[in-house]
Amino acid sequence: MAGPTSDLSGEMMQxxxxxxxxxxxxxxAKEWAEGDPMHSQNVRRFVIRxxxxxxxxxxxxxxxxxIRDS
Length: 70
Hints:
It is a single chain. With 70 residues, this protein is of the alpha+beta class. It has a domain at 23-70. 37% of the residues lie in helices and 17% in strands. Strands 1-2 form a two-stranded antiparallel sheet. The model has no long low-confidence stretch (mean pLDDT 82).
């Protein structure tokens, strides 16, 4: 999943965003992020953080995995 993030009002997109990778490790996520043309060409920078999903519909996870692995 990926998309822009808003300012604190929720009205304006600030030019920053978030990408969620489903990776086996932080190292794998870093490799994917470094391979992104926006990052490899130094147009954008990134920060890797681990995220714990407390609630989710399994179908969404399955669909994301299919897209990522294709």
